[in-house]
Prior knowledge:
Elements: H1 12-35, E1 53-54, E2 66-69, E3 77-85, E4 93-99, E5 109-118, E6 129-135, E7 142-152, E8 156-157, E9 161-162, E10 168-177
Parallel strand pairs: 2-10
Antiparallel strand pairs: 1-3, 3-6, 4-5, 4-7, 7-10, 8-9
Amino acid sequence: MSHRVRAGEPDKGWLGLARRSLALTSMVLALLAGGCIVADPPDSSDPEKTPPLLLLSQANPPVYEVKDLVKSSVPAQVPINVPVRSEDAGDKLYALLYKNWNLGGRRSDYIQASTVILAPSTFDDTGRMISTVWDYQDASRGCTQLTLMVTHASNFDLAIGYINPADIAIASWFFNIDDDGTNTLSSCGAVP
């Protein structure tokens, strides 16, 4: 049997199916559109510069012990290696080695041969190392203190030194040169 549709009368079977299909399509589109999450664009500002961080637990030689040295050793040199991390924001790192830095009236000598300049990097860079060598052949017998000061190039002026003390990292070592049994740390200015 066939069903005849009279003129001017809608086909209720097809009309119902069309309405249900349209409703279903609308719901699917609404779910898809509602589930689409657009993330904010990444922050395009440059990272902020951080002060250098020296990883002293990995320094070689260790900073927590006095190292005995003999001037007759060949070569009379001490390799100094300290890992460093910092967010540089395009600014180089300067690492400068000083002998007897600020030790109660003793002359402080800037050891120019031990200046290290590191290319800018990020804090996530865990492979950066400050490596230098101290030649102690001309050092006096007794205790000598070495101080490594690390800062950004923009924070250092050769004429006046460091500008902002908050952008400096410091490590110090004590070396006992040619000890004949009478050398003491007090000769370095340290507390006996």
